[in-house]
Amino acid sequence: MAHHRTFDLLSRLPKVDLHLHLDGSVKPETLLELALHQGIDLPVYDREGLIPHMRVGEECGSLIEYLSKFHFTTRIMQSGEALERIAYEVVQQSAEHNCKYVEVRFAPQLHRNNGLTVEETIHHVVEGMKRGQRDFGVRGGVIAICMRNHSCQSNLEVIEAAAQFVGKGVVAVDLAGDEAAYPPEFFREVFAESTRLGIPVTIHAGEAAGAVNVYEAVTNLGAVRIGHGVRLKENRSILEMVKERRIPLEMCPISNIQTKAVSSWEAYPIREYLEQGLLVTINTDNPSVSGTDITNEYRVLSDRFGFTAPELVKLIMNGVDAAFLDEADKLLLRREMENEISSLGVSL
């Protein structure tokens, strides 16, 4: 009975999701419908049959295996219509889990096979998010991703296009891809441009490579948030720097285990980080690839680490503090969240 009550509370708690990839959030039925509409061949033509092609299991061997699932979804995400619909449905799915604010990230250059410009890809994702906000009341922002395996020129195009949408839907830029093969110091020129243009930066770091990448991302790429950061614990001085600067970590528990960023739940540093005073946030990463949702992420923390309701609320409110929102909007979101949490009888 207690477990049922806990799950009910987790479902009802308002939440935020700051680290969610658009191409890792495609519903199987949407992929099927878009593929049929676009004349794209699929290995199977039923929802359940598609799931193994889109989702990893607990036995996922590595980040590379995990990332291979994305080739399946990006094929159908090459039109403005598809991008807008999937962005809209991400907001819809967020609303179903009482997520009040969501930041959706995607790599514009991966969606240009049919001739869209970088600006057009961003426009359509922003429009889908805005329509979702109108229909479901979930606020949000778009993060444009630069890819580690792309040229400097391709990534500069993303930065410059994103700058045109700052204040109109885009809230930040990011760097993602094979962290071990392409360390952050390769991208100083790209992110010098984001700094010059005043665009906030979050960087995937300390996931598939060590804590030194977190240091480089913060000190030389201008990162004010870090995607994952699970390997930060390997270097005490870098951890202390992140703590002192109040740099939020966008942790994604289920994904971090599946990609082998962390070897086991026993080794997952979430409680250690929280007790050391790091600004930890909880996010989904890729709901359709990981087979998760934001409520499920909190349920896993409750079950595996014994997090209490006030501790879970602390993690949720860390997400509000870390959001790429201006101070006025952040204050409004904080008040809305606090009121809803108080109404559930949970102390803040």
How would you portray this structure in words?
The protein has 348 residues and is of the alpha/beta class. It has a single domain (14-343), classed as TIM Barrel, CATH 3.20.20. The protein is built from 17 helices and 8 strands. The protein has a 4-stranded parallel sheet with strand order 1-2-3-4, with helices on both faces. Strand 6 (225-228), helix 11 and strand 7 (249-251) form a beta-alpha-beta unit. Helix 1 (2-12) runs antiparallel to helix 15.
Series of secondary-structure elements, N-terminal to C-terminal: HEHHHHHEHEHEHEHEHEHHEHHHH
Number of domains: 1
Global structural class: alpha/beta
Major β-sheet strand ordering? 1-2-3-4
Q: Indicate the overall shape.
A: globular
The CATH architecture term is Alpha-Beta Barrel
| C-alpha termini separation | 24 Å
Q: Roughly what percent helix?
A: 40-55%
CATH superfamily membership:
Metal-dependent hydrolases
Secondary structure tally, helices: 17
Radius of gyration: 19 Å
The share of residues in extended strands comes to 5-15%
CATH fold label: TIM Barrel
Count the beta strands: 8
Largest sheet: 4 strands, parallel
Assembly state: single chain
Question: For the record, what CATH class applies?
Answer: Alpha Beta
In round numbers, the mean pLDDT is 94
Poorly predicted runs of 5 or more residues: none
